[in-house]
Amino acid sequence: MYSAPIWYHWVYNLSEPALYATCLLGTTLLALLVGLLLTAVRRYAGDRQASSFPPGLVTAIALPTSLVIGLMASDVSRRYNEAQDNVMQEARTVAALQHALTELPATASAALQEELTHYVTQELSREWEQLQRAQVPLGLSPALIRIGVGLAALQPARAARAVSDGVIENIQVQLRELQRLRTQRSQLALGKMDSPQWMIVAVLLLCCAAVMIEVTVHHRRNRIMAMTLFVFSYGSLVYMIATNDRPFSGGVSVTPEPIARIFTQQEAVLPNLSR
Questions:
Q1: Mapped to the 3 state alphabet, what secondary structure does 33-80 carry?
Q2: Could you state, in order of their start, the residue ranges of all structural domains in the chain?
Q3: Of 32 and 58, more confident
């Protein structure tokens, strides 16, 4: 089981407004640090002249910075949408498996439906609690394994034609698909931005802030406006990356609610589901 570093739990336990404020604060501190360093360098060198940087250099630095960070934000947003789609596919597959199990003989159907109920109501809840803590479950589902074992036990009935080959094969197909979707969910949970990518973001922001501050070095009003725009624009992009980078953690996260909802709806109408 994969487990995230300690700082992760602090960041993703924040509410969304607090996380946004943290991103803005981090961007502000970065800009202040760059400003202090440049001021110290100028004083040490005795340089009191206006900057020799052409104003066009701001565009030359800000444009690729915005492009790279924007592409990163787009990529993590795509992964978040993929995680949502994956859970919806899981819900449809659980529903198909739930329906297919009703076509088995009554005793076997009730036993295997009980395992599926255990999977939806207990195993998924436990897995999502782990995902919220960034502990990604990588193993197979015990309940789904038991359903597979129960199907194997039906071979004598299948040989005696008491159970249709098509019914068994359909259930096996749904089981394999559900296991595939669970594996894909774990991969999406692991597919986060790593430390080198965050370092690239920090370096790009440092360069952009340095150029903005240097160009407006003797223009206090322009510097304040430039830094305010810098903090809110790039801070918002960093927030977008942070909030979508972990699709199963944080205040805005993908939940198992679609799976539980469709299972409960079918449980009320399908035969052989009363216990």
A1: HHHHHHHHHHHHHCCCCCCCCCCHHHHHHHHHHHHHHHHHHHHHHHHH
A2: 2-269
A3: 32
Q: What is the pLDDT of residue 105?
A: 83
User: What does the block give as tokens for 85?
Assistant: 């789609």
218 burial (CB, 10 Å; 0-12 / 13-18 / 19+) is exposed
Instruction: Please give the backbone phi and psi of residue 212, each rounded to the nearest 5 degrees, phi first.
Output: -60, -45
Residue 111 · residue 150 · CB < 8 Å = yes
Q: How far is CA 176 from CA 41, 96, 120, 144, 171, in A?
A: 63, 12, 16, 9, 9
List of E strands, the chain? 2-3, 135-136
Token reading at 53? 């940087």
Give residue-wise pLDDT tens across range 120-166.
999 998 888 888 777 777 677 889 999 988 888 877 655 545 567 78
Among 249, 250, 244, smallest CA distance to 77 is for 244
Alpha-carbon 103 to chain mean position: 37
Spatial separation of the C-alpha atoms in residues 183 and 66, rounded to whole Å: 34
